[in-house]
Amino acid sequence: MDLSALIVPETTGEASLVVAEEHTAPRVGSGRVHVLATPVMINLIEAAALAAIEHKLPPGYQSLGTVLNVRHIAATPVGMKVVAIATVASAAGRTVQFHVKVLDEKELIGDGEHERVVVNVEKFAQRVQRKHAK
What we know:
25% helix; alpha+beta; 40% strand; single chain
């Protein structure tokens, strides 16, 4: 599958949340300070990438995150809104590359690169089942 006709560079997706206690480092086991946890920020980045491309894929296909290289450079306290933005950098073959950034109400809190690969859901599920059966 060549995605270049379906997904064009500069396509963007966004995902946001208001940081609650359940999103903090102590709650997810990644630290002791009650600020947005890095794993939650990563989840938000993936949700933004999904928002950018999933609706453009043919029925029976979805994307899976394969590479994530990000910096989490500023803390965000409980109660503050966070927005992740994923922008398609390129789409070739089955692979989509994204530039990502995450902002809170005051500043840039994270940035980096993300890669997703598009798969046929049925074939992927069959491979997973074969792995489980071994």
